[in-house]
Write a structure and sequence with these properties.
By secondary structure, the protein is an alpha/beta fold. It has two domains: 261 residues, Aspartate Aminotransferase, domain 2; 144 residues, Aspartate Aminotransferase, domain 1 (Alpha-Beta Complex). The strands form five sheets. The chain has a seven-stranded mixed sheet with strand order 4-10-9-8-7-5-6, sandwiched between helices. Strands 11-14-13 form a three-stranded antiparallel sheet. The radius of gyration is 23 Å and the shape is globular. The N terminus is likely disordered. The chain binds pyridoxal-5'-phosphate. The site of pyridoxal-5'-phosphate has 13 residues, from helix 6.
Length: 494
């Protein structure tokens, strides 16, 4: 389905059932906040103005509805509720039980999952819950009794080795960071890379695509306890049926981290072998990226992991955030509506339009395109580093982030890539035509930008110049696009 500007599905008005009521609510709220610390009220107002004026192509960001946002600003925040629904370590949790049960029910229904745990405060927390649930379910660990407990930051590599040995030297195999994986999938400096002996799979150097045969070979050799799938910067679908087959063959537990693409699963853009829920033992996610909910995390699990997942608190979590669980329930209720499926389809269609628009104008894309919500430009084709491209685009009013490309010669700091995503601007009502225009603006800026000399006379990896007038002209064009598709239309703070 390709759409043009006039037929673009406009999804945000659906999420703002009553802009007048939302305006009144926010005006009153800012008055109350401003009476205590006016500078905070001002910053909140300024953030709305900034978000409205920004051509936001950051693939992990979105715009939650006023209903979701307002749900977080309530006294549900004041309640301690460690434990699970109906089984709390604090008295008086009946209303928290209501919202947590609702969020879990919506999550189970939306994703067709047997079990949902909605307490994790973030995506990283959700992964920690999942990892310890797998360890607790599958490893008979001897009691970890260490004399003289020290702060975890003081643990030496030898200490970690000892801890891993006590757990039976468990292994995790995940996608490498430079192929688009996430630091919680076994990256050395992250706790996941310390808890587990770690190995990673990458992508085919020629095509940039996941090489399932190579994943299978690596898994056979390495025999991980956990096979991780999921990504933050891989612009393609993953075949979870194959990943499960590989996991079964080597006796691994398949954990899929769908933090980035949960909205595409919820909206039934990813179905069959590309829907992780029927294939993974455990699925983790954030709720604030393409799913368009409050900032937080969630774990879905097959029945055999449900009890262990529910022990996320006290294992790695403290008290849940009841106000955020309530907002998850509201967001998941939104995601169960037909309008959300239309939104998710538009996110994917728009990514196609963006990718085609960039390619047609000469940009080189990692994997040559996309079949999800994100696009990764290899900006070395423009003679730039990711750092230079990111800054030049920002000067021109285009907000993106630099990202390593597979086997990046410029490393993780300067990088050679720019990651772009469509979820946020699609929430504003951008369609295929607007994304094609966005592609044009991006190529204009990158083509007009060149590295400047470093002190040693070579090309700098950070410094650049953009031809006169291009940034200013692009800012005007971006503002035109944004004005035609206002964020939270009708919501006025003054
Ligand atoms: C964003 C992301 C996370 C982390 O989410 P936070 O809420 O920032 O902790 C974890 N995994 C993947 C794949 C992500 O993209």
């Amino acid at each position: 389905m390709t759409t043009d500007a006039t037929t673009s599905p406009t999804t945000v008005p659906d999420a703002v059932p009553d802009a007048v009521a939302a305006s009144a609510a926010y005006r009153s709220a800012l008055e109350v906040i401003g009476a205590v610390e006016p500078r905070v009220a001002e910053a909140i107002g300024a953030e709305l103005a900034d978000q409205r004026a920004s051509l936001k192509l950051i693939a992990s960001e979105n715009y939650a509805s006023p209903a979701v946002l307002l749900t977080m600003g309530t006294w549900l925040s004041d309640k301690y509720a460690e434990g699970t629904v109906g089984h709390r370590f604090y008295a008086g949790c009946q209303n928290v039980d209501t919202v947590e049960a609702l969020a879990a029910e919506h999550a189970r229904e939306l994703f067709g999952a047997p079990h949902a745990y909605v307490q994790p405060h973030s995506g990283i927390d959700a992964n920690l819950v999942a990892f310890w649930a797998v360890l607790a379910s599958r490893v008979e660990a001897p009691a970890l009794e260490r004399a003289g407990v020290r702060h975890v930051n003081e643990l030496t590599d030898a200490d970690w080795r000892e801890l891993r040995r006590a757990l039976g030297d468990q292994r995790m195999l995940g996608m490498s960071l430079d192929a688009g994986g996430h630091l919680t999938h076994g990256f050395r400096p992250n706790i996941s890379g310390k808890m587990f002996e770690q190995s990673s799979y990458g992508t085919d150097p020629e095509t940039g695509l996941l090489d399932y045969a190579a994943v299978r070979d690596r898994a056979r050799e390495f025999r991980p306890l956990i096979l991780m799938a999921g990504y933050s910067a891989y612009p393609r679908r993953v075949d979870f049926a194959v990943m499960r087959e590989i996991a079964d063959e080597v006796g691994a537990t398949l954990v899929v981290d769908m933090a980035h693409f949960a909205g595409l699963v919820a909206g039934k853009v990813f179905t069959g072998d590309f829907d992780p829920v029927p294939y993974a033992h455990v699925v983790t996610t954030t709720t604030h990226k393409s799913l368009r909910g409050p900032r937080g995390g969630m774990v879905l699990a097959q029945p055999e992991f449900a009890d262990a997942v529910d022990r996320g608190c006290p294992m790695v979590l403290g008290g849940p955030l009841p106000h955020v669980m309530a907002a998850k329930a509201v967001a998941l209720a939104e995601a169960r509506r037909p309008a959300f499926a239309a939104y998710a389809q538009a996110v994917a269609d728009n990514a196609q339009s963006l990718a085609e628009g960039l390619t047609r104008r000469g940009a080189r894309l990692v994997t040559g395109g996309t079949d999800n919500h994100l696009v990764l430009i290899d900006v070395s084709g423009f003679g730039l580093t990711g750092r230079q491209a990111e800054s030049a685009l920002l000067d021109a009013g285009v907000v993106s982030n630099r990202n390593a490309v597979p086997a990046d010669p410029n490393g993780a700091w300067y990088t050679s890539g720019i990651r772009l995503g469509t979820p946020a601007l699609t929430s504003r009502g951008f369609g295929a035509a607007e994304f094609d225009r966005t592609a044009e603006l991006i190529v204009d800026v990158l083509s007009a930008t060149a590295p400047t000399a470093a002190r040693d006379g070579g090309a700098s990896k950070a410094r650049y110049t953009t031809a006169d007038g291009v940034a200013a002209r692009t800012r005007v064009a971006a503002a035109e696009l944004l004005d035609a598709h206002p964020l939270y239309p009708g919501l006025e703070l003054a």
